[in-house]
UniProtKB/TrEMBL annotation:
Gene3D superfamilies reported for this sequence: Ribonuclease Z/Hydroxyacylglutathione hydrolase-like
CDD domains: RNaseJ_MBL-fold
Listed InterPro entries: Metallo-B-lactamas, RibonucZ/Hydroxyglut_hydro
The species this protein was found in: Geodia barretti
Residue stretches making up the Metallo-beta-lactamase domain: 25-220
Ranges of biased composition (kind: Basic and acidic residues): 230-249
Pfam families from the UniProt entry: Lactamase_B (PF00753)
Protein name, entry field: Ribonuclease J1
Length: 255
């Protein structure tokens, strides 16, 4: 770990990424003061083809373990495994409640139960209400609904001793989601007016300048495809919005 010689002030806020920066998966971040620590997400990363026998990779949680008595809560943005899959490992040594959107909370309970770990049944998992204030030590926290490929996804706003911090979570711009609600732009606008000193934003595929169309827009293009072709067209669509399914096979037959 890198060491430095400067001293923090009494009201300083420190942000420590433990995973998910410069990589896909294993999202985990610590936001802390001298007295209080919040953990945002705790996910897994799925291994590459050249690491056979390894099913999941988890973040290095040693810093949290070392300071576990200061953890006030674990905050979750949404229910994808790269954001919640590491929680069974974290909660083995952290005695703090988990706060998550409703769908994510149910998925977390399932992950904890499936892990079969010691005391997992005693972990307190709370479903949050959007735009309600939650107080954890020196932090005041709000969840704001955003659109993603899974319902009940959220950004998290933290009012800290050093000003507002907005953790975007995973998001996309889609005003016609197949499941769930569009991003709550009004709530984000109000947060912006209150003041955001630091934005921690998802940047997945930010280097791609092409526009990505939502599933509804793609679906509307299929009838024209059907009119323009004389042959059958078999296509595989990945559909993360469909619960209980990794994909959906669509067959388009021209007439």
């Amino acid at each position: 770990m890198l060491q430095n010689d400067f001293e923090y002030g009494e009201s300083s806020v420190r942000i420590i990424p433990l995973g998910g920066l410069g990589e896909v998966g294993m999202n985990m971040m610590v936001v802390e003061t001298d007295d209080d620590m919040l953990v945002i997400d705790c996910g897994v990363q799925f291994p590459e083809y050249n690491t056979p026998g390894i099913e999941r990779v988890i973040p290095n949680m040693e810093y949290v373990r070392k300071h576990r008595e200061r953890v006030r809560a674990v905050l979750v943005t949404h229910g994808h495994l790269d954001h919640i899959g590491g929680l069974p490992h974290l909660m083995r040594f952290v005695d703090a409640p988990i706060y998550a959107p409703r769908l994510a909370a149910e998925m977390i309970r399932r992950e904890l139960k499936k892990s079969g770990g010691r005391n997992m049944a005693n972990v307190q998992v709370n479903s949050v209400r959007l735009e309600r204030d939650y107080r954890f030590g020196e932090f005041n926290v709000q969840w704001i609904g955003v659109c993603h490929s899974i319902p009940d996804s959220c950004s998290i706003y933290l009012d800290t001793p050093q000003g507002g911090i907005l953790h975007s979570g995973d998001f996309k711009f889609d005003n016609e989601p197949m499941l769930g609600l569009p991003t709550d732009y009004q709530a984000l606008s109000e947060i912006g007016q209150r003041g955001v000193r630091l934005l921690l934003s998802d940047s997945t595929n930010a280097e791609d300048e092409d526009l990505a169309f939502g599933p509804y827009r793609c679906g509307r293009a299929l009838p024209s495809n059907r009119r323009s072709k004389r042959t059958s067209d078999h296509r595989q669509f990945f559909d993360p919005d469909r619960p209980g399914s990794d994909g959906r096979r669509c067959r388009v037959r021209a007439r």
